[in-house]
Amino acid sequence: MGYKMIVLDLDDTLLRDDQTISDRTKKAILQAQEEGVKVVLASGRPTYGMRWVADELQLDHYGSYILPFNGSKIINYKSNEEMYSRALSAETAHRLYDLSKREGVGILTYSEDAILVEEPDEFADIESRLTGLPVEVVPDFKEAVKGPVVKALMLKEADRLKEVEVKLQEELDGELSVMRSKPYFLEFTQLGVTKGATLDYLIEPLGIKREEVIAIGDSYNDLTMLEFAGLGVAMGNAPDDIKEKADHVTSSNMDDGVAEVVEKFVLNRLSRV
């Protein structure tokens, strides 16, 4: 099988712990693109927090795409065209705020240029560092959110948030997509919005089959795209239950796991053609 697209999660997958891309990984990805393979970035991050990675990998030059907000948007990185967008209504965001208060966890969402929180905490600070967006503390969350938002995050220590995840997945079943992107981030998007579903939407007009897609990730919000792709790859640093559902397990994000996959399944096969 010749692979025509590589879809990459960012945090703890493409990016090392210091938020950099290794030279080996960057070289492999650029070489794959030179050979005509599309490289797509799919992350829970907002668009702003993905742009420097897309720029470093020259996605604009190669005419590729980014899928921010867990697939709530598709952006053509060459033209900057927003090809697809799904958002939560203000009323839904307000309801999630009420649920966060009931469960005793934090909540955030996004404006165009900031992270909106009513009560700042260490987890909002982590999201700020990951995305590059400042934290804006608002006196009234509901008053600040007057229009649609792409997604919302509930925030708490991992053990407690796992309990909230199970409870709200059942309570909001059939209404919203609910999944953890990190142990301390519980994400809410429009029903049916997942990295896998958005990837399905993206490849059809490109004439690419799912069997021709490699998807690489490490966490629960990556699972739908790993299951969708012809080759779903879990990072060596992924939880065991993610690894069990992947077709292949590579090395960790600190040990060039992405480069290993690109070299083995794309570049080496191309060199034999």
End-to-end Cα distance, whole Å, is 12 Å
The H/E string reads: EHHEHHEEEHEEHEHEHEEHEHEHEH
User: Could you tell me the mean pLDDT?
Assistant: 95
Q: What is the count of distinct domains?
A: 2
Low-pLDDT runs? none
Largest β sheet strand count, sense and barrel closure: 8 strands, mixed
Helix count from the secondary structure assignment? 12
Shape: globular
Description of the molecule:
This protein has 273 residues and is α/β, with parallel strands linked by helices. It has two domains: 5-85 and 193-272, Rossmann fold, CATH 3.40.50.1000; 90-190, Hypothetical Protein, Haloacid Dehalogenase-like Hydrolase, Chain: A, domain 2. It contains twelve helices and 14 strands. An eight-stranded mixed sheet has the order 5-4-3-2-1-12-13-14, with helices on both faces. It starts with a strand and ends with a helix.
Offer a concise description of the structure:
The chain has 12 helices and 14 strands.
Q: Layout of helices and strands, plus pairs?
A:
Blueprint: E1 5-8, H1 10-14, H2 23-34, E2 38-42, H3 48-56, H4 59-62, E3 65-67, E4 73-76, E5 81-85, H5 90-103, E6 106-110, E7 115-117, H6 122-131, E8 135-137, H7 141-144, E9 152-155, H8 158-171, E10 176-182, E11 185-190, H9 195-206, E12 213-217, H10 223-228, E13 231-234, H11 240-245, E14 248-249, H12 257-272
Descriptive labels:
Rossmann fold, 8-stranded mixed β-sheet, 2 domains, alpha/beta, single chain, Hypothetical Protein, Haloacid Dehalogenase-like Hydrolase, Chain: A, domain 2, 6-stranded mixed β-sheet, globular, 41% helix, 273 residues
